Amino acid sequence: MTNGNIMMRIINTFLKVIVLLLISIASFAQEHNVLTLVSPHFPPYTYKSDNKIVGLGPDLIRQVLDNTNIQYNIIMVEDYGEAVHVIKAKLADGMFLASQNAERDAIAVFTQPLLINKWSWFMLKDSGLDPKSETFKLKAGIGTIKGTNTYQWLKSNGYAVAASPSEASSLVAMLTTRRIDAVFLSDVVFENELDEKTLFKLKKSVEMEKNFSMYISHDYLKRHPESIDKINLSIKEVTR
User: Fold this and answer.
1) What residues make up the domain containing 182?
2) At 31, is the pLDDT very low, low, confident or very high (cuts 50, 70, 90)?
3) What does the alpha-carbon distance between residue 153 and residue 109 come to, in Å, rounded to a whole number?
4) With bands split at pLDDT 50, 70 and 90, how would you rate the model's confidence at 12?
5) What is the CATH number of the domain that holds 15?
6) How many domains, the chain?
7) Whether residues 77 and 103 fall in one domain
8) What ranges in 3-148 are assigned the alpha helix state H?
9) What is the helix (H) or strand (E) element at residue 143, kind and residue range?
10) What pLDDT is recorded for position 33?
11) How far apart are CA 153 and CA 163, in angstroms?
């Protein structure tokens, strides 16, 4: 057996364990009326430190839900694509932090906004490219994180996505070594990976501002229709 085959078997076994774990958690949660939320690895919004799920997102979600009588747990997943998949598979009841799109609206309800997420362009200061131009749209090599709404927006609007790694740090390396022409991403996420020296080399322009919050699945709300009002009221209290 080749090393590649061995690695694939290890990966498949690992994925099966993850799926079984999520199924077990989902079954327990439904039986005990626990709201199970998934959050993608998306620092500084959500990441792990000392084996704990931390970041701006979990901190806000805990404040919001601790103000209600809703029991909950939080699980971190690899990316936004996986977060949507586990909700569709009814292995989780919601996700955060997220902005709206049609795919997510089909399976869940978007809550009151918690934060404003600025989708921004980053380029080297000496770049002569203009993100507003048609030439840029057709020819510029653009990077963003896979599975995100920024990725979906680029594809839907006809931009050339040249790189879609899972980490913003990879995009920093690609941009500074000129392997890509621009990065399109949440400014907080990209700037979290920049040191002062690198930040000085870049220019930024904000494309749009998007509400950033939670999604609660339609299936969960059928079982607990009162919960969305409790969550939205708590969000208003936490963010005012």
Assistant:
1) 116-210
2) low
3) 20
4) low
5) 3.40.190.10
6) 2
7) yes
8) 3-31, 56-66, 80-88, 102-105, 134-139
9) strand 142-143
10) 84
11) 14
